[in-house]
Amino acid sequence: MTLGDLFNLLSENPSVILFYFISVPLTAFLAYVFGKGDGNISPWKYLYSVLVFLVCIPGIFAITLSIYLFFFERISIMETNVFTQILPVLSMIATLVMIRKNVCFEDIPGFGKITGLIMVIAALLILMWVFDKTHIIAITFMPFYYVIIIFVVLLVAIRFGTKMMMK
Asked: What was the pLDDT predicted at 89?
């Protein structure tokens, strides 16, 4: 089974994916209602941590997939899959808004690792895009030290993001 087969299967049977991406923000809302003001104490902050990881991993993957499809595969925005590209992002935003109303993100265990993951993915996507867009001819028109500076900055960003993930 390929990734495309999995996305087709999820699109043909949307009840599972709809249940998942509706239940996570709903759980965050219920945690906000029942734990109002207590978001930074032990049972609630671990629930919020689980919710953040449950919704951010698919959300970040959906954003990365969309960027890849639009920039590298040159797929039209009209071919965007609602269940695999839009719903995870909307669910992630709704969940993070609900969580933010009750607790500061710094108090949630592991939230810095999500930020590091985003930085690593963003730096790698930029690096892939630069390699895709630049050709031997294009590099000869650009001073070589610009290419080296861009490469070093992206490597530092990847390293910094990796350190944040490993904390």
From this structure: 93
Q: What's the whole-number mean pLDDT along residues 95-113? A: 84
Q: Which residue has the tokens 């028109």?
A: 141
- Considering all CA atoms of the chain, what is the largest pairwise distance in Å, rounded to the nearest integer? 62
pLDDT, tens only, 54-87: 999 899 889 888 888 888 888 888 888 888 889 9
Q: Which two tokens stand for residue 137?
A: 């001819």
Residue closest to 20 by CA, chosen among 64, 99, 79, 84: 84
